[in-house]
User: Which sequence fits this backbone?
């Protein structure tokens, strides 16, 4: 139901089409066997996976995520970042997210910094930012 919710606004999708999309997304994020569980029965990492699936339900080109790995242990956080990369590659969706976790920052392709309300020029992975 949580993943299906944004699809209820897409009038052209039948109930069976919505269910197929939800099942596909659950499979993509590795939660097909958890489909009938309530949110209180899921771990933090599983809840983040549900949130990613819900965000992808309408096939957006960009997903904005505020601290998507917050309150997760580092292993689970890396799995979430890997999942975002996988969804990017499979679905062509770009993920833009905020984080303070330097270990997670090292896993992304481009980094932009906001300091004192100013956005810095982005750096790409492997780029030291120096001339």
Assistant:
């Amino acid at each position: 139901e949580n993943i299906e919710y944004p699809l209820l606004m897409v009038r052209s999708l039948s109930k069976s089409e919505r269910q197929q999309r939800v099942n596909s997304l659950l499979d993509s994020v590795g939660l097909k066997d958890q489909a009938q569980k309530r949110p209180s029965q899921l771990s933090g990492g599983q809840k983040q996976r549900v949130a990613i699936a819900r965000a992808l339900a309408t096939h957006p080109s960009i997903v904005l995520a505020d601290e998507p790995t917050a309150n997760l242990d580092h292993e689970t956080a890396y799995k979430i970042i890997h999942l975002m990369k996988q969804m990017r590659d499979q679905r062509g969706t770009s993920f833009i997210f905020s984080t303070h976790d330097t270990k997670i920052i090292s896993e992304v392709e481009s980094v932009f910094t906001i300091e004192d309300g100013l956005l810095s020029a982005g750096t790409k992975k492997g780029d030291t930012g120096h001339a």
User: Anything to note?
Assistant: The helical segments are 15-28, 44-56, 74-91, 102-105. The two ends are 51 Å apart (CA to CA).
